[in-house]
Task: inverse folding
């Protein structure tokens, strides 16, 4: 079949196109001037800083060339995901040669001047990064941090039945944990409603400073490894370009036929009960293929020395400069580009048409495919709150009901849609189990009679890897979908660097007019540090908040809903938003409910509110007076403790003027010139006054709030209590006591910080200290919290004990 569809004349053209790609790759790394070598190469033509990676680039370009020919023959939609992100110059070169780059960036024109700009901008100030970055057309995967390529490719394929994703995986990347987990994709890819992923494991034998495990493994061992994960690998090996291109063409063609057969059978209902074995390609070529074979008598090609810049002293070493010129001229640029510097017409004609070009595919610019999510009316799920703080409910359960109906209303006739929930085996545990009334967990392997909510057409993605859950979602969003990643709070830290990379991507995407907005990355953190009844200290860690705060203020939002109706309001906002990373932190356990849906909407829109009903600052005529102390809370457990503290102060020292503030949008604490959600100076003072001390109960580490308040006047008047790395398997109230954030600790702090020393303040302080001592004895003796804590609701605090003299 390779000979039938790949005659010598066509192969010759593709090899010339490949030479052009390799030439532009080398030119980008080295040249600031004389980009087409129209004159002898001199030292002043070389960039002062040589940055970029040559080693993986020839293989990436070869794959691109073969896929271009395949696309022209089949008219299929392909997305190209490059795990070796350091191959940035190769992908820039490929998209330039196909015409996409100049369309998007007209200043990089299809002539000599444009090639000069293309080279000068690469890895240079004011230019483009060396990775396959967000600025690179056709990319959804930056590749700077290795390990995520196959997960991103899978996410892009979910619910895109016509899409084929070629995912190139470097053998260095293949050593990472996330990539190793990603091979399990066949257990989750549904041939009936999803697209397909063709992994191309590119084994060039070395990483930056030494060999790779799979690169040095035998074909037998590599084949056994991949087949054990559900793949059917085909090997393409060699260093003769003609032979490798023919073999790679045959492998791609055969893989597409296998994919088509699998999908056709699944969509016709004639597939066997066995899980299909999806094709994969293992490509072995030399690292730095076609580059310098030796430098100064030392072998370079095929070794780690080809990884970055194989000739590093070209500005100072005439021999290196001469070798660079010979290398570049070996591609015969004068036969690739005409006298104007335009790609030869017969090579330009090798590009697929329009959006079939991999640099122009809408699947790599998902906002072009994004459709509005059918979010049902929130009133359908809103809790009735007859009075604040008097009823309990599992806070996240209403969100599960909302997501259930989003699934129901957005599911296509073929079982696909535009929304998915991703969760590491914790959907039911996180009280989101209502989704299983509409759909199952996705599972392509055998199902037994004893399984619950498991099936091939399920659209809840559960796998015990935070990396896969988040990576799948990121790819899904970047290809035009919507979704939520729900995780235990402590273990979301497993993929925090992935979240940081995604935020960086969005930060730069917002500056590119051609990048259409994509749905936000919504991360629900539950099973939080304060309420891990089944688990201990290992499950207690709110550090994701700290990791997200320093990221781009244009991108990051952190939400701390105190109850179910605020969660609904925030979820509605986040699911409709674009180009953000939304961190939603809320516990799944039963909590007091405070606000009606209408009140919750106003509260969330404001970002924070004074809860007048909880304070004692009115002057008796319904007018607020200047408070003696402000009690503030951000988070569900902190809100309960602050309200209980406020009620103790109300009962014991009713003449003390107390203001209660609840914060739901954490980033609003930042100054307005730092974050777009930040309160104005006047708005901040309206909440917290200008000089009154604030006792602040916070869900996470107290340092996070101090960081947010930097730049606010009199920031040292904020006294923050939060999680301080004290925990174990214990009662809910014991957790707040261990971390000195209990209602009694907060009252003691308020008494120390209040503008006036209230009468009976000493008695209240003694009472609080006594309650803390009583608590320690009680939980040990009874294995549960004291009744007045366990059963506390707003208004239930007993009257103050009589004064004893």
Result:
């Amino acid at each position: 079949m390779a000979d039938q569809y790949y005659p010598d004349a066509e192969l010759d053209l593709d090899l010339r196109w490949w030479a052009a790609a390799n030439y532009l790759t080398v030119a980008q790394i080295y040249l600031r001037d004389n980009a087409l070598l129209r004159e002898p190469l001199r030292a002043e033509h070389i960039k002062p800083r040589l940055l970029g990676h040559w080693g993986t680039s020839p293989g990436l370009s070869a794959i691109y060339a073969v896929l271009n020919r395949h696309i022209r023959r089949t008219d299929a939609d392909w997305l190209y995901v490059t795990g070796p992100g350091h191959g940035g110059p190769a992908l820039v070169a490929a998209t330039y040669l196909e015409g996409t780059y100049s369309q998007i960036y007209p200043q990089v024109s299809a002539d000599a001047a444009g090639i000069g700009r293309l080279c000068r901008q690469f890895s240079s100030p004011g230019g483009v990064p060396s990775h396959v970055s967000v600025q690179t057309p056709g990319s959804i995967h930056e590749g700077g941090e290795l390990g995520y390529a196959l997960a991103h490719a899978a996410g892009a394929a979910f619910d895109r039945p016509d899409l084929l994703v070629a995912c190139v995986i470097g053998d260095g990347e293949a050593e990472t944990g996330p990539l190793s987990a990603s091979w399990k994709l066949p257990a989750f890819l549904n041939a009936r409603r999803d697209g397909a992923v063709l992994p191309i494991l590119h084994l060039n034998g070395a990483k930056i400073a030494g060999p790779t495990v799979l690169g040095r493994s035998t074909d037998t061992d590599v084949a056994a490894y991949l087949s054990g994960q559900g793949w059917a690998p085909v090997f393409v090996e060699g260093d003769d370009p003609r032979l490798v291109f023919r073999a790679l063409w045959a492998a791609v063609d055969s893989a597409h036929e296998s994919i088509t057969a699998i999908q056709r059978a699944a969509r016709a209902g004639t597939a066997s009960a066995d899980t299909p074995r999806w094709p994969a390609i293992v490509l072995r070529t030399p690292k730095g293929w076609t580059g310098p074979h030796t430098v100064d008598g030392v072998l370079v090609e095929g070794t780690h020395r080809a990884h970055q810049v194989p000739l590093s002293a070209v500005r100072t070493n005439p021999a290196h400069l001469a070798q660079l010129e010979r290398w570049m001229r070996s591609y015969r640029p004068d036969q690739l580009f005409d006298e104007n510097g335009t790609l030869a017409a017969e090579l330009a004609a090798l590009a697929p048409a329009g959006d079939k070009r991999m640099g122009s595919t809408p699947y790599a610019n998902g906002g072009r495919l994004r459709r509005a999510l059918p979010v049902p009316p929130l009133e359908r799920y809103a809790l009735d709150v007859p009075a604040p703080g008097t009823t309990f409910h599992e806070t996240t359960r209403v969100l599960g009901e909302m997501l259930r109906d989003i699934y129901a209303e957005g599911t296509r006739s073929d079982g696909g849609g535009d929304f998915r929930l991703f969760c590491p085996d914790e959907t039911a545990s996180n009280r989101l189990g209502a989704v299983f009334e509409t759909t199952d967990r996705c599972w392509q392997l055998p199902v037994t009679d004893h399984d619950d909510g498991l099936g091939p057409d399920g659209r809840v993605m559960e796998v015990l890897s935070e990396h896969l859950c988040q990576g799948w979602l990121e790819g899904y969003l970047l290809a035009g979908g919507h979704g939520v990643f729900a995780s235990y709070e402590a273990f979301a830290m497993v993929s925090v660097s992935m979240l940081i990379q995604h935020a960086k991507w969005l930060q730069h995407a917002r500056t590119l007019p051609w990048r259409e907005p994509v749905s936000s990355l919504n991360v629900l953190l539950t099973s939080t540090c304060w309420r891990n009844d089944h688990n201990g200290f290992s499950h207690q860690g709110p550090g994701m908040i700290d990791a997200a705060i320093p990221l781009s203020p244009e991108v990051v939002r952190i939400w701390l809903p105190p109850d179910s109706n605020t969660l609904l309001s925030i979820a509605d906002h986040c699911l409709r938003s674009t180009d953000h990373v939304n961190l939603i932190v809320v516990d799944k356990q039963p909590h007091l409910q405070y606000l009606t849906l209408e009140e919750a909407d106003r509260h969330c829109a404001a970002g924070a509110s004074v809860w007048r009903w909880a304070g004692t600052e009115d002057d008796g005529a319904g007018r607020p007076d200047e408070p003696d102390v402000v009690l503030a809370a951000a988070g569900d457990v902190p809100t309960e403790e602050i309200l209980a503290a406020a009620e103790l102060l109300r009962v014991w020292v009713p003449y003390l003027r107390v203001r209660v503030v609840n914060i739901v949008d954490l980033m609003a604490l930042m100054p307005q010139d730092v974050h777009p959600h930040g309160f104005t100076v006047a708005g901040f003072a309206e909440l917290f006054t200008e000089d009154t001390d604030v006792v602040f109960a916070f869900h996470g580490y107290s340092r996070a709030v101090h960081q947010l308040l930097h730049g606010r006047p009199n920031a040292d008047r904020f006294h923050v209590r939060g999680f301080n790395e004290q925990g174990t398997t214990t009662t809910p109230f014991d957790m707040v006591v261990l971390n000195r954030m209990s209602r009694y600790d907060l009252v003691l702090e308020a008494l120390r910080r209040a503008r006036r020393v209230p009468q009976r303040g000493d008695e209240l302080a003694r009472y609080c200290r006594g309650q803390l001592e009583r608590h320690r004895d009680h939980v040990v003796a009874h294995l549960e919290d004291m009744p007045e804590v366990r059963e506390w609701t707003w208004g239930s605090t007993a009257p103050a004990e009589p004064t004893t003299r």
Notes: Residues 33 and 45 are 5 Å apart (CA to CA).
